[in-house]
Amino acid sequence: MVDPSLPEQGAPFRVAYVINTYPRPSQTFIRREIRALEAAGLPVTRFAMRRDEQEVTSREDQEEQARTEYILDQGPVRLAGALLRALFRYPGTLLTAWRAGRRSGQGRGPLRQMIYLAEGAVLAERCRQLGVFHVHAHFGTNSADVARYAGLLGGPGYSITFHGPEEFDAPHNLLLADKIAEARFAVAVSAFGRSQLSRWTAFRHWDKLHVVHCGIDPAMFAAPAPMPAGPGPDQPLRLVSVGRFAEQKGQMVLIEALARCTAPVHLTLVGDGPLASELRAAVSRLGLASHISLPGWLDEAGVRQALADAHVMVLPSFAEGLPVALMEAMASARPGIATYIAGIPELMLDRETGWLIPAGSVEDLAQALERAAATPAPELAAMGKAARARALERHDIAPQAARLARLFRSYGST
C-alpha cells in the first residue's frame, strides 16, 4: 500500500512548517532555518494558527507574513466543515482528542482540543492539496497538537523541534510522550534538551530523538564592530541584555546586581513583556535611571547595533532552552555573562568565552559584573574573539539546516 503522505514520483519534496504565531520578533531563528532549507533546495510551506498581535515591522518578517497561511483566518465555518469531513473518515480521533483534553488539564481541556482538532483537519486538507509530504512543528505546545491531529486525520507524518523551557515545565499536560511516540522524529536544540525529552519518552523511542542547534547566519556577522572604548575609570563597562521581560529571564536579578556594583557600568536592557512595569519600577526605586537604558523591542538591525555598542552580553536566566540572543552576541565577538543552566554551558565556556554563574544569585552576578569591569580591554576582546569562533563553529545555520533536511528526507521516505 502506498503511503498517501509521500510525494508522487517526480513531485517536489515539500515540507510544511507549523507554528502557533508567526512571524514574531523573538523567532528570527525559525525564519533563518526555513530560508536555509529553501536555499538548499527543499521547498517549505508555512502555516501558523494566528498572526502576531504586535505589528510586523521588519522587511524580512513582512515577507514571511506574506508567505504564511493562517489557519484561523479560514473562519469557524471552514474549520467546522473540515472537521466534520475528517471525522466522517476518522471518527476515532474524536475520542483521542477528548481523552487528550481530560489528561491535559486546565487551559488545554476537551473544548480546546476540539479547536486543535479542527485546525488539524484544515492542515491535513491543505497538505494533501499542496503535495506536502511532512509536517514539522516548532515548539511542543499547541502547534505540535495541530500537527499530531493532522497526521491522525489522514495528513502527513510529523516531527517537532522542542526548545524549552515551557515544554519541560509541563511535560504531562503537553502530552510529550504521546507526541514523540507518534512522531516520525523529534529534535532538541541542545544535548540538555534531548536529555529532558528522554525523561518523558519510552526508551524504545530514544532513537527518534536528535539534536539540531538553532542557527545564525554568519553573513549577518561577517565584520563584527570593534568594542567601544573602555572599560575603565572614565569609561563604564557597557552591558547589553536581550530578552522577553518574563519570569524565566531573570532581569530583576540583573537590576539588583547592578545596584550592588561599585564599578562604573551601564546596561541596555532590550525587550518588553509582562514584567516591564515591575522592572521599570525597580530601576526607579534603586536610583538606576542614569545607568540603565530601556529601548523596548528592537528589530534585528537594532539588536546588532546594541551589541556593537556593548562590551559584554548578560543573560541572567532562570530557565532556558538554548538562547539565540547569546549566540548572536558571541558571533558579534562579545563575551557573555550567563547562568549555568540548560544548554548554555554547551555554548559558553567559563572564563574563555565569558563567565558562567549560578542562576538566581544577585551576589554572584554582581561579582561577575565587577570582574568584567576590571578585565583589560585586550583581554575582553580576546574573549570576544573566542566566543565568536565557538558560535560560528557550532551554530552556522547552513549545516544545521542540512542536518534537519536529511532527517526530513530519511524519515519522510519510510
Question: How would you describe the overall organization of this protein?
Answer:
This protein has helices at residues 28-39, 59-66, 75-89, 92-104, 110-130, 142-152, 166-169, 176-182, 191-199, 251-260, 276-285, 300-308, 324-331, 344-347, 362-374, 377-395, 397-412; strands at 15-21, 44-50, 68-70, 134-138, 157-162, 185-188, 209-211, 237-242, 265-270, 292-296, 312-315, 336-339, 354-357. It is α/β, with parallel strands linked by helices. The protein has 2 domains: 15-215 and 396-412, Glycogen Phosphorylase B (Rossmann fold, 3-Layer(aba) Sandwich); 218-395, Glycogen Phosphorylase B (Rossmann fold, 3-Layer(aba) Sandwich). The strands form 2 sheets. A 7-stranded parallel beta sheet has the order 3-2-1-4-5-6-7, with helices on both faces. The chain has a 6-stranded parallel beta sheet with strand order 10-9-8-11-12-13, sandwiched between helices. The longest helix is centred in the N-terminal third of the chain and has 21 residues, at 110-130. The model is unreliable at 1-10 (pLDDT under 50).
Question: What would CATH call the architecture of the largest domain?
Answer: 3-Layer(aba) Sandwich
Q: Tally the beta strands.
A: 13
Q: How do the strands line up in the largest sheet?
A: 3-2-1-4-5-6-7
The tally of structural domains comes to 2
Which runs of at least 5 residues are low in confidence (pLDDT < 50)? 1-10
Order of helices and strands: EHEHEHHHEHEHHEHEEHEHEHEHEHEHHH
Helix content: 40-55%
**Main sheet makeup:** 7 strands, parallel
Q: What is Rg?
A: 23 Å
Give the CA-CA distance, first to last residue: 12 Å
Enumerate how many helices there are, as a single number: 17
Classified in CATH, the superfamily of the largest domain is Glycogen Phosphorylase B
Determine the strand fraction and express it as a percent band. 15-25%
Structural class: alpha/beta
Overall morphology? elongated
Average pLDDT:
94
Write down the CATH topology of the largest domain: Rossmann fold
CATH class group of the largest domain: Alpha Beta
